[in-house]
Design goal:
This protein is α/β, with parallel strands linked by helices. The chain folds into 2 domains: about 325 residues, TIM Barrel (Alpha-Beta Barrel), CATH 3.20.20.80; about 80 residues, Sandwich (Immunoglobulin-like), CATH 2.60.40.1220. The chain has 11 helices and 19 strands. Helix 2 links the parallel strand 3 and strand 4. The relative contact order is 0.13.
Length: about 425
């Protein structure tokens, strides 16, 4: 949903249930450590909980395509954290959305001046540069724009300019990272005109052309956010074929549900039923709705409660689409959600025959990394902090490389050593005193 994607860095850990297709659909959560968005001090615990509960998870981040006007064209922090730091000590698959609007009216298309629309050539060039740099980090999924269908209602002519940009963006991303799956994100209730419970202006007019105007050959996957309580007052009323119009429209294309869920508490501000029981019922309903469909991933909105629920009515409504309540107690829906998890990725096995030693470890100034065998190519050493952010890169000279502390803080770090083809030679823990 559009409300808070610019307020904090939403990451999603996607897990795996069973399904009718050869690859089971993934499930997950947005970045929501305990206490967020006021504090992200518990982020390491969040990473650990989700990836240990389901190894092979996908981490998803959705944020604006630039962090500041002067930084436009560079990889945004959220994208760098997710795709730029993989592989990390956390076993996950990277997924990123770079958005360009906070609806209904705020566009981010003039970071350095000029027209605030898709005729801005400078913006298009900087955005493509951002996407290319992000693609160079080889994310598994990269989505261009969030809930873009709202814009066709705002400016149907400029929406065509957006479509032409998206086609160009697709080609740019694939040129830099052919294996990355590329698409954009829609909102189902607005797209299909299923928002009768919204006040003061319900969504009753469909906007399917927002999807059909895009060349399907340039969408590897089609992503969608969906919140059925915007149309139905209780879970039991949601038909099992609620999403069928969307599946029919996208045809054989794989689908990613980037946001969904049902609130456990809405503070009495909305007409629909909100309770832990309704939330559990929706988990079961959701997997019924997507059963037999070509869904690659489905993401529940939050793991922990969003704590700034007094800011707006909208935040209050959505803050409890979480698996923990405001006191840190798990809702019953959490166990149901976890029951759809399975390990999605085989553990990485280092190539045989090369042993790695690091001395000293712990170290205060410089550590030397030594391989037991030399190779004809250039091996690489990567160091990551506890959050999975890449903080050092070194190339081997012969059988050794060095890692300088410089401005790194004391604590635990994780390292990886790869050969010239990126194949893992070894990994482990490194301590700075």
């Amino acid at each position: 949903m559009k409300r808070f994607l610019q307020k904090f860095i939403p990451l999603v850990f996607l897990l795996v249930p069973s399904g009718a297709y050869s690859q089971a659909p993934l499930t997950g959560f947005s970045l929501s450590p305990e206490g967020f968005p006021f504090t992200f001090d518990s982020l390491p615990q969040f990473f650990t909980e989700v990836t240990q509960n389901c190894p092979g998870s996908v981490i998803y981040g959705s944020a604006r395509w630039y962090d500041s006007a002067s930084a436009a064209g560079n990889v945004p922090a959220v994208a760098g954290l997710i795709s730029g730091s993989t592989p990390t000590p956390y076993n996950y698959t990277s997924m990123v959305t770079l958005g360009w609007a906070t609806y209904p009216s705020t566009l981010y298309l003039d970071p350095q001046g000029g027209a605030n629309n898709w005729t801005n050539a400078a913006t298009r060039s900087l955005y493509l540069q951002t996407l290319a740099s992000t693609a160079d980090q080889n994310p598994a999924y990269l989505f261009v724009g969030n809930e873009v269908n709202f814009y066709i209602e705002t400016d149907s002519l400029d929406y065509l300019n957006w479509v032409s940009f998206y086609h160009e963006a697709y080609d740019t991303i694939k040129a830099h990272s052919p294996q990355t799956k590329v698409g954009t994100v829609f909102n189902y209730e607005h797209l299909s005109g299923n928002g009768d419970n919204l006040n003061p202006i319900p969504w009753t007019a469909p906007h399917w052309s927002a999807l059909t105007l895009i060349d399907t050959a340039k969408m590897d996957v089609v992503a969608v956010n969906t919140y059925p309580f915007l149309q139905y007052l209780d879970v039991n009323s949601v038909p099992n074929n609620y999403l069928q119009p969307f599946f029919d429209t996208v045809g054989n294309k794989p689908v990613v549900i980037t946001e969904t869920g049902w609130p456990a508490d809405d503070f009495g501000l909305a007409p629909w039923g909100a309770s832990p029981a309704e939330q559990s019922a929706y988990v079961n309903k959701l997997f019924t709705m997507i059963s037999g469909q070509n869904v690659e991933a489905v993401n529940w909105l939050f793991l922990h409660y969003m704590m700034d629920y007094n800011q707006t009515i909208e935040d209050a409504v959505f803050c409890s689409i979480s698996m923990y309540d405001s006191t840190g107690v798990a809702y019953p829906a959490y166990a149901l959600w976890q029951s759809h998890c399975a390990i999605t990725a085989a553990p990485e096995i280092p190539a045989a025959g090369n042993e790695i030693t690091i001395a000293p470890n712990p170290f205060s100034h410089t550590a030397t990394i030594t391989l037991s065998e030399n190779s004809s190519g250039v091996n690489q050493f990567f160091l990551f902090d506890a959050l999975g952010k890449k903080v050092r890169t070194s190339s081997f000279t012969g059988q050794s490389a060095t890692c300088a502390r410089e401005n790194l803080s004391p604590g635990f770090y994780f390292y990886r050593v790869t050969d010239e083809n990126g194949k893992l030679l070894g990994k482990g823990k490194l301590v700075i005193e």
